[in-house]
Amino acid sequence: MLEKIRKNDLFCDYYAQWINVYKKNAIRKITMDKYLMSQKWLKKLVPHLKIHELTRIAYQQLLNDYAVYHERQTTMDFHHQLKGAILDAVDEGLIQRDPTRKAIIKGKIPRNKKPKYLSQYELHTLLSNLNLGSEINWDWFILLVAKTGMRFSEALALTPKDFDFTHQQLSISKTWNYKATGGFLPTKNKSSSRKIQIDWQTVVQFSELLKGLPEDKPIFSEKKVYNSTVNEILKRRCKALKIPVISIHGLRHTHASLLLFAGVSIASVARRLGHASMTTTQKTYLHIIHELENKDVDIVMRSLSGLI
User: Fold this and answer.
1) Most exposed among 81, 92, 117, 260, judged by the fewest C-beta atoms under 10 Å?
2) Minimal CA–CA distance to 156: which of 128, 136, 135?
3) Distance, CA of 222 to chain centre
4) Residue 91 forms beta bridges with which residues?
5) Backbone angles phi, psi at 135, to 5 degrees
6) pLDDT digits (tens, 9 = 90+) for 162-199
7) Closest CA relative to residue 221, chosen from 147, 150, 152, 273
8) Residue 206: is its pLDDT beyond 70?
9) CA-CA distances (angstroms) from residue 213 to 41, 150, 219?
10) Among candidate residues 2, 45, 38, the one with its CA nearest the CA of residue 20
11) What domains does the chain contain, in order, with CATH numbers?
């Protein structure tokens, strides 16, 4: 379909066709929804912009207009989603030069964000006060996510067969389609399929909990599960203990943060979290990495001063 596009056609129409040709059935629905949202913003911001009119100035103005409504990181994502289509248009001769070159990313001033992770003391306080009975409940779910850094959908998809108690490992090979009607789905990406080492205490606890449960069925729930339901349980626990209120995804951030502060390498943390690359880990935990770098500088200076 793309060969039918002409220079005088609307850029928003070209982008719609580009998504249909290159992205449809090739990416996860949640990612596809982001591309479709970018398409809607193109229709809103530049409904009459033709492909050949997409100069560097026109593109920068588009980004600036988008940034009025969004924070910088969201604008950066918008830029990356458009760039693939634009570079293809350059290759096809529809645009003379790459208009995305040297683009400046702006954005609204970020709102005061809620805490994304707990300190080691706060996490210890939370975990030691969970209601961990003899049967599986959502408090066990909270404990497992905190100790493994799994994504919400990965933890929901766990079955007894995924636990290798002999080797103290947890196999992540699927996710649970909690946003729709349930059922197993592939992992977010190839790197997300992984084995996570678990501590001996978790091994002892779950080896008892899972006795007699069906090997291939989710251990937490086969019914419709809402992210908000589990987040509400976690919220109540945090409020009762007077610690910062975080989400289930915040437990994943907590897990990674504590590992980084403990000196675990970025490469190991990336593998444990199932990130596609270390770049993702570095971007997500940049503030912690900067903090650790400052700490490293102090160590280096102390070491050098002791040489004479």
Assistant:
1) 92
2) 136
3) 24
4) none
5) -125, 155
6) 999 999 999 999 999 988 888 899 998 888 999 999 99
7) 152
8) yes
9) 48, 21, 8
10) 2
11) 2-91 (1.10.150.130), 120-292 (1.10.443.10)
CA distances from 53 to 57, 59, 98, 288 (A): 10, 9, 12, 42
Alpha-carbon span 73 to 182, nearest angstrom: 31
Q: Taking the alpha carbons of 26, 27, 33, 39 in that order, is the dihedral positive or negative?
A: negative
CA–CA gap between residue 38 and residue 110 (Å, rounded): 20
Q: Could you give the CA distance from residue 18 to residue 38 in angstroms, rounded to a whole number?
A: 12
**Which residue in 154, 161, 221, 141 sits closest to 194, CA to CA?**
154
**Going by DSSP bridges, is the β-strand pair 163-164/184-185 parallel, antiparallel, or unpaired?**
unpaired
Residue 37 has pLDDT above 90, yes or no: yes
pLDDT digits (tens, 9 = 90+) for 93-148: 999 999 999 999 999 887 766 667 888 899 999 999 999 999 999 999 999 999 99
pTM check: above 0.70 = no
Residue 304 confidence class, pLDDT cut points 50, 70, 90: low
CA distance readout (Å), 78 to 59, 265, 282: 12, 30, 20
